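Session log. Operator J.P. requested a structure for one protein chain; no other inputs attached. Running the standard single-chain path with token output.
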Amino acid sequence: MKGPLLTMGLLLLTLPARADAYEEHDYILNCSGCHRMDGTGSKNVPSLLAMAELLGKPGARAYWVQVPGAAQAPLSDARLAALMNWLVERFAGSKPDPAYTAEEVNRLRSAPLRDPVARRSKIREAIVR
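Structure written below.
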């Protein structure tokens, strides 16, 4: 039991002095373990900094909610929608238009991706063309 507590304590030490919104708390608790606190990702986990290049591309909006980590996060649809809006603004530098809603998140997360790497490749291929 000491291992997980130590890990959480170390993560908390890397936080800025204040975390004002629950979206940031949800990111820390549900995303930062794989995507890291700064969003740079880790082995086999894409960087969230690449969200900017996918923003507005066909399929990207759904992809971000349907990746297993998001789709299966222990958050309500409303909390996940708020987190997705925060993620896009934070890592893509632009508010999603339109903003994610609980209803949209509910619909999208009901069909999580089985192969998120392949879907991401398809979205990226569409960018090149």
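Operator note: The chain has one domain: 2-128.
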